[in-house]
Amino acid sequence: xxxxxxxxxxxxxDPPHYDGPSIAEVVSVTSGLTGRGGxxxxxxxxxxxxxxxxxxxxLAANTKTMSDRLQQLRVTESVDSGLGDVTVDHxxxxxxxxxxxxxxxxxPEAVARSIMSAIQKARRTLADRARxxxxxxxxxxxxxxxAIAARVEQQLRGGTNLDDDPYRR
Length: 169
Description:
disordered C terminus
């Protein structure tokens, strides 16, 4: 019932959204606390701890796999007009630059712009590959995975646009 003197029409506001568990879910969980196999039952508590430890072990293994795969990342991109190739490592740092004899026929400023453009393209490709590795190894649902992905985006793309973040939903 609206407060005295106020009508619902005066306050065009949607009711708050609740994302918590349903009453049935709460009853289901709490009824399992004390029954056979519940967490207050010694055997049930051990089962819950073993399952929790298994989840932690899987997360640790997946995180190690992610880290190893990210450390191995390297991307090579061609410089426009066949001027050469650039290679960046997992941090986005230039680790190799191969130039062709064609650079001798192009103004140095144009060569520099083409090289810088190729480095930026390599970093964007690297960010995409890193995002794929993160999704494949640790997933996209956890806060930690989103934080890692955001950090990679920040480092390789020079910033993030949260509206374009595929993990933020």
